[in-house]
């Protein structure tokens, strides 16, 4: 009997990644000379970044990456520029796309200092927590709404309260104590 292989792709990356549209610049050489591509990332991890490019950049070529990380809540510093060297891992043509997004470009960070790598890891963790929280919110609302509806059905009708004696009328003047 043949063993059925899983149709799910196995994650090969060591670092967690997150979908994020971050402003960035890629500087490298292509067949027409030096290229400077201003683009937006598709996802990022502590080990690399994925984006679209208007130019073909050959795999295994060195590039300079500049990434704009936004300010995260609870942090004193504002948005931060991460500048590092990268190596093109993959550059594939995307047929039928706009000229500014003709290629899918994957770059691995080559020479990133530990502080900047940690900053990217913090950003990835923060964004993944946001995504998890957003995914759980509709489920919480459904659960809460369902619970409220169940409680309404389970509560028996109240009996009419017995008539209470009328309260004593007051004159509106307050007593003051000395």
From TrEMBL:
InterPro entries: PilZ_domain (IPR009875). Pfam families: PilZ. Residues 140-178 are annotated as: Disordered. GO terms for molecular function: cyclic-di-GMP binding. Residues 11-125 form the PilZ domain. This is PilZ domain-containing protein.
């Amino acid at each position: 009997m043949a063993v059925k292989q899983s149709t799910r792709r196995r994650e090969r990356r060591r670092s967690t990644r997150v979908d994020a549209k971050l402003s960035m610049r890629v500087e490298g050489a292509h067949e027409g000379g030096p290229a400077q591509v201003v683009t937006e990332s598709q996802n990022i991890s502590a080990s690399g970044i994925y984006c679209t490019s208007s130019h073909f950049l050959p795999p295994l070529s060195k590039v300079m990456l500049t990434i704009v990380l936004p300010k995260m809540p609870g942090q004193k510093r504002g948005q931060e520029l991460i500048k590092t060297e990268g190596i093109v891992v993959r550059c594939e043509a995307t047929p039928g796309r706009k000229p500014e997004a003709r290629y899918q470009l994957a770059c691995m960070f080559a020479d990133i200092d530990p502080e900047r790598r940690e900053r990217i890891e913090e950003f990835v963790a923060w964004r993944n927590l946001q995504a998890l929280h957003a995914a759980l919110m509709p489920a919480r609302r459904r659960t809460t709404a369902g619970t409220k509806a169940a409680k309404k059905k389970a509560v028996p009708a109240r009996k009419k309260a017995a008539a209470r004696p009328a309260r004593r009328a007051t004159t509106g003047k307050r007593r003051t104590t000395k």
